[in-house]
Amino acid sequence: MHSSMGTRRVLVTGCSSGIGLAVAARLAKDELRRFKVVATMRDLKKRGPLEKAAGDSLNKTLEIKELDACCEASIKECVNSLPNRRVDILVSNAGVGMIGPLECQSIAAMKELFDTNFFGLVRLVKEVLPDMKQRQSGHIVVMSSVMGIQGLLFNDVYSASKFAVEGFCESLAVQALKFNIKTTLVEPGPVMTEFERKVYEDAEMMDLSETDEETAKIFREVYLPYSKKVFTSLGQTTEEVTEQTLKVITAKDPPLRHQTNRLYTPVTALKHADPTGRLPLDTFYKMIFKHDNVLNATLGVLRMLKSVLRTKKIQPKL
Ligand SMILES: NC(=O)c1ccc[n+]([C@@H]2O[C@H](COP(=O)([O-])OP(=O)(O)OC[C@H]3O[C@@H](n4cnc5c(N)ncnc54)[C@H](OP(=O)(O)O)[C@@H]3O)[C@@H](O)[C@H]2O)c1
């Protein structure tokens, strides 16, 4: 069956919680029944919340399979188990976060993060791309981040992993297009998921003895409260990100990049406005270290704007 005429098979990674879970359940419940969802997770013992969210669609338009993005064999086994190994749409979503002073993070932990966030994507693409090329159709959708465009204080390694994701996809997209395969980087700002809880939990337990006192203080007393404020002021729900991912997937001409949070767009626009990099650097520096009041006022306005946009159900245009 040609993908444009029938149901499209979507493989989603990291469906035990958060965005992956919400995207998988939403696509499976599509009123137009356009998708067959292969919702994957590395630990099937965590399937409960997804089963609950899937409801009646479970084992009809949604099946749950095991897939560890850090294991080539696991990815192969999952794809091999699908009829004709067919994946029309890959949603590479599995990812982990990491915040804190660099001196307190081990190289081993950084490598682990890259293994999931970057090489996890590379492994998946290596597995599905040849078949997509052969069929001359497919869509690779990648859960990136605004931190793949603009780095953020104490997110050095996480941001670097998303920059790697962006560079990889931007490069590959040209070749893929020659085979009629579309590529989309979905770039959320802060989203209220387990992700946030996990990174803050790690931050609370972090041994800061490896860094100097001033850095530790900046991390604890400036960055963490700042970051929590940003989450409460700008944070989106998984439903909001999911609706926009659905739009990207069903778009006739999907974009290479899609930022889900229009409140965050001015931040990333700074980067494009000044190729020397001074403008975003100075802005972030002043925002974090000099103008706490300005930041608080701005976040207050943004909070208000967010609720207006929500009430009016205004979403960014594709
Ligand atoms: N939340 C945000 O603020 C935010 C913002 C921008 C972008 N993102 C991106 O959105 C994606 C989803 O994050 P989320 O917010 O939904 O966080 P989440 O609730 O923590 O979900 C992350 C998912 O990735 C899975 N995962 C981790 N390592 C894996 C591996 N090796 N193989 C397969 N699955 C693995 C986790 O599974 P386990 O339960 O087994 O750990 C979990 O299902 C990530 O790529 C993240 O970088 C998040």
Automatic annotation (TrEMBL):
Positions of NADP(+) binding: 14-42, 68, 162
Residues annotated to bind substrate: S145
Transmembrane segments: none
Top-level division of the source organism's lineage: Eukaryota
One cellular component term from this protein's GO annotations in UniProt: cytosol
GO molecular function: all-trans-retinol dehydrogenase (NADP+) activity; estradiol 17-beta-dehydrogenase [NAD(P)+] activity
EC number: 1.1.1.300
Keywords: Lipid metabolism, Membrane, NADP, Oxidoreductase, Sensory transduction
Main location (coarse class): membrane
UniProt family annotation: Belongs to the short-chain dehydrogenases/reductases (SDR) family.
Descriptive protein name: Retinol dehydrogenase
Gene name of the record: RDH8
